[in-house]
Design goal:
Layout lengths: L2 E2 L2 H13 L5 H12 L7 E2 L7 E5 L7 E4 L4 E3 H5 L5 E6 L6 H18 L5 E6 L7 H10 L6 E5 L2 H10 L13 E5 L6 E5 L4 H14 L1
Parallel strand pairs: 6-7, 7-8
Antiparallel strand pairs: 1-2, 3-10, 4-5, 4-8, 6-9, 9-10
Length: 214
Amino acid sequence: MHQPVTPNRRRQLLRGLLLSPLLAPQLRAFAAADGMHDHHHHHHAAAASDAVKRSAAAYRIPPVTLVRQDGAAVSFPHAIDDGRPVFLNFIYTSCTAICPTTSQVFSKVQEMLAAGNEKANLVSISIDPEYDTPGRLASYARQFGAGSDWQFYTGTQAASVAMQRAFDAYRGDKMNHAPVTFLRPAPNKPWLRLDGFAGPDELVREYRQLLRGA
């Protein structure tokens, strides 16, 4: 069950962001600015503790059309069923706390996989498609150094909600989203769900374990 983050807890999370070696200096400054101002953003904690919660599920991907950051409209099930393992998360570009952290993690995962000549399909889906145009997603992708193996998707509000519901990640409002990452070793295999701030080392380790068991 997701519990609201209290002001004290939110300050603790922001302090963690400021100290995190995963964040580039400009993102740490961004987090610092967010912590100094009393925004009306209310994020939800993924669990009662900081530990990442690990679970498996057989999610059914709905037959929706999404739009990539390059403007191409694609059938999402077809886009991710190309045989590669999949890393998937939900983001929005105006987010100032959770999304910069999880996107920086994906950026590091991308680097680690490339260094080992390992292949994967990294996917980030917007939960604010009305604001997150393909152009904004393309700019966001450049900010985090996304390469060709990391694609960003937007679309209609209905398509975005359908995707969130399919992965049990819909919380009714973008301010209430929680950090969660999904991994799948191959098409028609169960998904691994990681609730919480999973770091790049943890994600790559899980990826390799999934491949060994696939």
